[in-house]
Amino acid sequence: MGQKNQLWWDIPASESFLLNKKIYEIPEIQYKKTLDELIDLLSIKDKLNVQVRRLSLGERMKMEIIAALLHNPKIVFLDEPTIGLDVISQSKIRDFVKYYNEKYKTTFLLTSHYMHDIQALCKRVHVIHKGKSLYDGEFEDLVNRVNPKRKLIFEFSTTPPQKGIETLIEKYTFRINETILRAELPDQELTQLVSELFQLGTPATITLEDLPVEDTMRSFFTQPEKFL
């Protein structure tokens, strides 16, 4: 499900659900139980009898998900499920997919160019570029292989000693502006740097961030052979 609609636009989604019930020969008790659970999880009960064409994009996507899951499939294909949705709707769709996968062990195959979806939902990824399979494995491993760095912002409570900073410059790559030091380094180097920064002075704040996944994957697709 995703970019091709399985719901009839001129009738309410509830009537399309009944059609799916007949097609998949879903027993009445199972149908009602599954439908009630799905509309409750997706908070869409008040829209069941509204023409599909009158629903918002987010509401239509929720109805499409219900239609796809009514017969309790073992595998579900999701094609760009959050494209065009607002931030809140995107989050709700992701939360639902994650919950449903954990509860029912349903396998979701997600095709997407949207890194936030992949990062939030996928442990394993299969990367295809220009018709060729480039990678099949853990998403986190791929990210760490392409860009193993993290971002550090270390703010001293007072101006650090110049001699100490000069010593660190010989060992690490970073930028410092008066009391604020910024660095992008692999975890091991970052840990060592933080330890030595504590010896120079008391921090006012410390921030550690992962680098944007979009930037990492952009680097990968620009020169995939460099990382494989």
TrEMBL record:
GO molecular function, one term: ATP binding
SUPFAM superfamilies listed in its UniProt record: P-loop containing nucleoside triphosphate hydrolases (SSF52540)
Alphabetized Pfam families for the sequence: ABC_tran
Domain spans labelled ABC transporter: 21-82
Alphabetized UniProt keyword annotations: ATP-binding, Nucleotide-binding, Transport
Residue ranges that the Swiss-Prot or TrEMBL entry lists as coiled coil: none
Protein's recorded name: ABC transporter domain-containing protein
Species of provenance: marine metagenome
